[in-house]
C-alpha cells in the first residue's frame, strides 16, 4: 500500500509515544503528526465566533469565555443586550409596572380606600414614565450586559456588521477571522405590513414606542398577539384611547380560548375597543390624525367588526416578527434559510456543521428564555461534541397583561388530538383561593391537562402572578412527575394553592369514576362501624 505523500508518518513507529504505539506499521500515518499537520493546514483565530449580542449571543459568549475558550463577539449595533433589553422585555415590563400601579390607585379610589384632595383626580407624567424605563435599561446595560463585564471575562468585542466569506471565514471590521465554530444569534425585527400610506403617515413599533416622551391621546394597535395586548393595556391604563385590531376571531389566538377570553374581558373593562376578524388595508392622514381603513375578514366564526375607518394619533404595528438574516453572507457559508428563519437541525446546526444558529433568527418560540436555552445547547455542541439536542416539550411562557396568562405544554385541543379520550382536564378558579379573595383579585383560573394515569401534558394559568405560579408545573413536567406531585403542602394563604386544588381534582375524578372502589369503601366503613 502506497502512502499518501501529503500525510506524515511516524519516523519511529515502534517507539512508545502514545497513539503511535498502536500503529507500529511503517507507512501508516501517525495520528499525533496528522493532528499537527491538520492544525497547521487549518489555522483558526478563535474557538468560537458569536454573531449577535442579544439574549442568545450573550449566553454563548459569556459561558464560552468562562470555559476558557477564545471568543469573538460581533454586534452590528453600538451596544449589547439586543431586542430584549432595548425594545422588548425590559422596557415593556417597566411600562406595564407603571400602568398597573396607576390602575391599582384608581381601583383603591373606586373602593373608597384612598381619596385625593381636589377634583382633578390622577394625572400621569409620561416623561417620568419614560425616565423610569430608561433607568431600568441603563442599570442592566451597565451591569449584566456591560461591555466591560464581557471584556473582563475574556470576550473580544467588535461593534460592526460582518458577513461570511465562505463556510469557515467571517469578515468584520476589515478583518477575516476563522473559528472552529460560529453561532448566529442575530435575532428578529418587527414585520411591517405593506399598507398603502403607512410609511407616509408614520407608525410605531416595539422598537420606537419606548422613545416617546409624551403619551399619545389615541392609538390604533395592529395585531392582537402578546406584544399588541400588553402594550394596548399599558397605554390604556395610562390614559390613551386604544383600539386593538385582531385579524382572527379572538385575541391571543395561540393560547387557550378560555384563558384568552379572561384577558379579553379585562382589556374591555380597561376601555380598550377590540375589533376582531378585520384587517388593515390602507392608511391616510387628516388634520394631523391618522386614518386606518379596516375591512372585514370573510369566513366562519364570530361576526366581524365590519368595514370602517379608525382615527388615531398614532398607529402601533405589532403584527409579528421576521428574522435578521440579511447581509450575513449565508449563501456563501452554505447556510440555508427561509422567510421564517435559518434552518437548523435538533442540535441547532445549520447545513454547514461548523455554523450554529439560535434564538429568534431560527423562527421558533420567540422568547428571551427560549433564546438563552437554545444558546446553551448551541454552546455545548459548538465547543465540544455535537450531541445535545434542543427539546421543546416543556417550554413555558407568559403574557404580562393583567391578569397574566401563562402556559406550558399542550393546549386542551392539542392534547385531545393526540390522546383522545385519555385526556382529563382539571380546572380550578382563583375565586375559590382565599388569598385571591383577600387581595380582591379573584379573576382567572388554573387548568391542568393530564392523561388518566396522571401524566401532565400541559397547564394554563390566567390570573395575578400566573407567570410565577406556572413554574411549579414546569418543574413537575420536566421531571416527569405525576399530577399528584402538585398536591403537597402549600403555604396558606398563597395563590399557589390554585395548583394544589386543581391537582386534587384528579383524585376526586378517579374516585368518582371507579364504582368498584366506591363499593369497597362503602362496605369497608359499614364493616368497621359494625365492629366499633
Describe this protein's structure:
With 532 residues, the chain is of the alpha/beta class. It folds into 4 domains: 1-34, no CATH class; 46-189 and 323-383, FAD/NAD(P)-binding domain (3-Layer(bba) Sandwich), CATH 3.50.50; 198-319, FAD/NAD(P)-binding domain; 397-512, FAD/NAD-linked reductase, C-terminal dimerisation domain (Enolase-like, domain 1). 34% of the residues lie in helices and 22% in strands. The chain has 16 helices and 23 strands. It has helices at residues 31-41, 55-66, 82-86, 89-110, 126-142, 147-153, 198-201, 226-238, 257-269, 330-333, 368-383, 412-419, 434-438, 466-478, 497-512, 515-531; strands spanning 46-51, 71-75, 155-159, 162-166, 169-172, 175-184, 188-190, 218-222, 241-245, 273-275, 278-286, 289-296, 308-312, 314-317, 321-323, 337-338, 341-342, 355-357, 397-399, 404-409, 423-429, 445-451, 456-463. The strands form 6 sheets. Strands 1, 2, 3, 4, 5, 6 and 18 form a 7-stranded mixed sheet that branches. Helix 2 runs parallel beside helix 11, helix 4 packs across helix 5 and helix 4 packs across helix 8 (226-238). The longest helix is centred in the first third of the chain and has 22 residues, at 89-110.
Task: Describe, in short, the structure shown.
The chain has helices at residues 31-41, 55-66, 82-86, 89-110, 126-142, 147-153, 198-201, 226-238, 257-269, 330-333, 368-383, 412-419, 434-438, 466-478, 497-512, 515-531; strands at residues 46-51, 71-75, 155-159, 162-166, 169-172, 175-184, 188-190, 218-222, 241-245, 273-275, 278-286, 289-296, 308-312, 314-317, 321-323, 337-338, 341-342, 355-357, 397-399, 404-409, 423-429, 445-451, 456-463. The chain has 532 residues and is α/β, with parallel strands linked by helices.
